[in-house]
Each structure stands twice: as C-alpha cells, then as structure tokens.
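User: Modeling request: complex.
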Amino acid sequence: MTALLAVEEVSVRFGGVHALRSVSLEVAAGRVAGLIGPNGAGKSTLFDVVSGLRAPATGRVLMDGRDITGSSPQARARLGMARTFQRLELFGELTVRQHLVVAHRVRHRQARLALDLLGLGSRPRPGEDDAVDGVLDLLGLGSIAGAPARALPIGTGRLVEVARAVATEPRVILLDEPSSGLDGAETERLAAVLGRLRAERAVALLLVEHNVDLVLSLADRVTVVDFGAVIADGTPDDIRADQAVQRAYLGAAP
Ligand code: ADP
Ligand code: MG
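Assistant: Request completed. Predicted assembly structure:
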C-alpha cells in the first residue's frame, strides 16, 4: 500500500540543538501513525515540518509520493491535509454547526469568510447540510450542534476542532496533542471518535501525543523519538516491549 503521507529522513537544527535527526515515518489511508517521545524530543518540530510551518534542513515530506517539502500549509490543505491545533482555535460566538459549515465551504471554495463569521452566510450549497450532518453524527456532536463554542467544555471543544478538520474532507489529518487538557472520560471519548474516523472515512491520521497509552491503544504503527532521533518504530506491542523506550521514559511522566 502506498503511503498517503511519508516523512523521509528529516533533520532540523536550532543552533547547536539537533531537534530532529533523520526521522522517517509513513501512514496509509485508514491507518493511524503515532509519534511519541519525552518532552523536548522533537515531536512539535516534526509536526511543523509535516504541516509546512518549518522547512527541514534535509529530508523530504511526500503526499501520494509527491514531494511537498517546499509547499505552503495552504497548498498542503488543497491537497487534502488538515490539522488541529493544540490550543483551541474556535470562534466563541459561532455554533458548533457553523464551524463545520465554514470548514465545508472553505473546502469547496465557497467561503465568504466575513459573512460566514457573522452567521450571515449564503444559502447552503447542494449537499452541504448532509455533509455537515454526517460529520456531526460521526463525532457525536449532533445534540450540541446549536451551542455556541464559548459554552463548550474543553473536551467537547477539542472534538469540534477535530470535526472542523473532518469537515474539510481531508485525506490526512494531523493531530497535535489532541488529549492535552482533557480528563480521563474526555480522552476516552476522543479515542472512540478517532477510532470511528479511521474506520468510516479511511483517512490517514498522524497522532502526535504525550499520552502514550492513547497512542498505543489507537495507532497501527508507532514511532518513538528521543533527543531528535528515532529510538523505536513498530507496532504498539513492539513498543511496549522495547527496552530503549522504557529507558527513555524512565523517571519521566508519560
Ligand atoms: P517536543 O514537542 O517533543 O516536546 P520540540 O519539537 O518542541 O519537542 O523541541 C525539540 C528540541 O528543539 C528541544 O530541545 C527544543 O528546546 C528545541 N526547539 C524547539 N523549537 C525551537 C526554536 N524555535 N528555537 C530553538 N530551539 C527550539
Ligand atoms: Mg511539543
């Protein structure tokens, strides 16, 4: 199976710090790739390279085998790459449903951002209501579709972030620490949603997380970085049994 997203031998330096040393990973449609590692390991730097916010010193990023290393985040979005943010980036006055309508219209290049942000957008495009309902359903957000974002607890807000990414009908979704700030129940709900997303939409998911258990429960393949280098790469079972991984996490809260 050709990888939908591939990172090939990516290196990044900040002065004397090797933030990434020849890191590679890949993920196919309908699969979840996990990236874990202790604080300062290079996870966010890799996320930035994949999403197009930072150019690597060496190495490549490919979508469908096509080199996108030099492409802007916007160009990557047009190719079907979506991302969520670690900090919630929702608009307080817009309802959950309106967030998804805007995302859907951005995908279909019909966004009239100013009007949509005011909730005064044009009539729905054909299929829009069904598409948005489908995403609300998939993420279990139907019952709060009319709630303004400012009224939502953080765990629900995070699901709306994911829903907004899904509403752009992406082929690859990059998730940056989606469980940060969530309690145990919220994290479980997130895990269930991500599992459903992978099964029903056949998207490729790259999950960057400090929550090791979440990644090990969801990912098909896990890459572990420490001090910028890959120290393990394998199935969740491989990773659980790996001595180098256990050493890297010794004394560090996972
Ligand atoms: P993680 O997300 O795994 O915690 P990061 O990718 O944020 O790790 O950081 C990897 C390393 O690169 C760390 O040593 C960090 O201090 C360093 N680093 C990250 N961003 C910058 C930057 N903008 N300038 C200088 N050093 C940075
Ligand atoms: Mg980070």
